[in-house]
Specification:
Helix content is 32%, strand content 23%. By secondary structure, the protein is α/β, with parallel strands linked by helices. It folds into 3 domains: 207 residues, 3-Layer(bba) Sandwich (FAD/NAD(P)-binding domain); 150 residues, FAD/NAD(P)-binding domain, CATH 3.50.50.60; 73 residues, no CATH class. The strands form 4 sheets. Strands 4, 5, 12, 13, 14, 15, 16, 17 and 19 form a 9-stranded mixed sheet that branches. Strand 1, helix 1 and strand 2 form a beta-alpha-beta unit. It starts with a strand and ends with a helix. It binds flavin-adenine dinucleotide (FAD).
């Protein structure tokens, strides 16, 4: 039997996916959001062009935003047929490995089809698609232009009974009652403070400072320049700790993002931007910058570092309240994980509600259930960051050994498709990093290169193999 009402604080990706899941368990799901949101899909030919614009509450939407395979799986599970619909609407699509040129540590991953679809769209486009689906669900109600102020509780503050909101321009607070309140307000979530005000312990916070900046610009890109790929991603290396991405998007344009850490940020002027692109570990992004027409000026977004709130360690937590998405853990965006993790959390929340019903819902158990869902991307992101010069992180013998293994793995993945596929599955959050240590993979990574089967065809991979054979990697 459905419970009566849930309130979702924040109508972005985490809030939308959660609302979709909650609609199966509650008669009414109210999404509360500060920005004005419509349920129109930007992909609809008659849609208001404003649907394609970046909104205030999600300024990161201006920058490259990829959905990992794990995230697209969630979208497909919650909205069956979504991939087909988006492809039919003209969203650039391809194979996750075969058509995404992924480079790491100065090596270009060998590209072979892995049998999983990847889509390349702008963040506002994806969000408008999700909104069009969620807002149309029976029982879903959306309240826009509303500030979330706090949570309401019973007298003993053991149960959250709703949220306090304030309409724009209004002076009075309004209580929106609910049996479950979900905080999906993103990285700026005030839940730790609300809990402290209610007499609960603030969750411990883990952080990894990177002082990252994204600088992005839209371009008219001839897709032929990408040679059949839909996106090019160049990750940073210890020797050149900056990266960049070219992502084809809907409506025939592309976003190009350049990023660097610890103050080494891409300039905003045209010449500086182009020169910065040239200093990336590989030339693919710079080549496209040079050959394409900019459509706007570069825009910067600063990201201080990954932050994880350890609600899973709490001893007490009010009933009727839970935290998801970036409000729970905000990852360094270089790894493209946030939306996918939010999606998997939404599925887990649904499972918890199926198990115990809203009445029996135990947020502490949920936080512990999603611990591995967060542990793995957190390990990938913070472990990757820690290899970059100047970033804090373990420098012990074990991590040095792991890094040496990974250095070798990246080189082998440039020509060995088994290793490349295994690595791609890990970065797409389909397999845990431990999969890269399986004997079948370790043997290929560690064995002398001459014994690795090779049917190389592309020149980059051939050159890598030669350098490897010559003992220079
Ligand atoms: C530069 C950058 C690039 C990124 N690239 C990727 C990527 O490639 N792939 C990926 O998966 N993830 C990426 N991410 C992360 C991704 O944007 C988030 O993980 C994703 O948006 C899910 O976040 P969320 O829904 O929890 O919060 P948000 O998207 O931050 O949304 C929070 C929502 O709550 C609303 N809100 C907040 N406070 C209030 C309030 N007091 N009252 C009313 N409303 C409020 C906001 O308006 C907003 O709509 C990137 C992040 C950044 C910063």
């Amino acid at each position: 039997m459905k419970m009566s009402r849930a309130v979702v604080l924040g109508g972005s990706v985490a809030g939308l996916l959660t609302a979709r899941v909650l609609s199966e368990h509650f008669e009414r799901v109210v999404i509360v959001e500060r920005d004005e949101l419509s349920g129109e899909w930007a992909g609809d030919p008659v849609a208001d062009p404003r649907e394609r614009e970046v909104r205030r509450g999600v300024p990161q939407g201006r920058h490259a935003h990829g959905l990992l395979a794990a995230g697209l799986n969630v979208v497909e599970e919650l909205f069956p047929g979504a991939t087909e619909e988006l492809v039919a609407a003209g969203v650039p699509s391809g194979d996750v490995l075969g058509n995404i040129r992924f480079c790491t540590n100065g090596f270009r991953l060998r590209q072979v089809p892995i049998g999983m679809t990847a889509l390349s769209f702008s963040r506002p486009y994806l969000e408008s698609y999700l909104r069009s689906k969620v807002f149309a669900l029976p029982g879903v109600e959306v309240r826009c232009g509303v500030d979330i102020i706090g949570v309401d509780t019973d007298v003993a503050a053991t149960r959250v009974t709703g949220a306090f909101v304030q309409e724009r321009g209004a002076t009075r607070l309004e209580a929106v009652p609910a049996e479950l309140v979900v905080d999906a307000t993103g990285r700026g979530s005030r839940a730790p403070r609300w809990l402290a005000d209610l007499g609960y312990e603030r969750p411990r916070e883990e952080q990894l400072h990177v002082d990252l900046a994204y600088v992005s610009r839209h371009y008219a890109v001839d897709p032929a320049l990408l040679d059949g790929d839909i996106a090019i991603i160049i990750g940073p290396s210890a020797a050149a700790p900056r990266g960049g991405a070219v992502m084809l998007q809907e409506a025939g344009r592309a976003v190009i993002t350049l990023y660097g850490i610890l103050g080494d940020h891409a300039p905003l002027d045209d010449a500086g931007y182009r020169a910065y692109a040239r200093r990336l570990p590989l030339p693919y992004v710079a080549d496209i910058v040079e050959a394409s027409i900019p459509l706007d000026d570069p825009v910067k977004f600063r990201f201080p570092g990954s932050v994880r709130h350890r609600y899973d360690e709490a001893r007490r937590f009010p009933k009727g309240f839970v935290v998801v998405g970036d409000a729970l853990c905000s990852f360094n965006p270089m790894y493209g994980q946030g939306m996918s993790v939010a999606g998997v959390e939404a599925l887990r929340l649904g499972e918890a509600l199926t198990r115990g019903g809203a009445e029996g819902f135990d947020a502490l158990r949920f936080f512990r259930d999603v611990r591995p869902v967060i542990d793995i991307p957190w390990q990938i992101a913070t472990g990757g960051d820690a290899t970059l010069p100047g970033v804090d992180g373990p420098r012990d013998a074990r991590s040095r050994m792991v890094n040496r293994y990974l250095d070798r793995l990246y080189a082998v993945a440039a020509y060995d498709e088994v290793v490349s596929k295994a690595f791609s599955r890990v970065t797409n959050l389909l397999d845990p990093p431990a999969a890269l240590l399986r004997p079948a993979i370790a043997a290929r990574v560690l064995s002398p290169v001459r014994r690795t089967r090779w049917n190389g065809s592309d020149r980059g991979a051939n050159a890598t193999r030669n350098r490897h054979q010559a003992g220079r990697i």
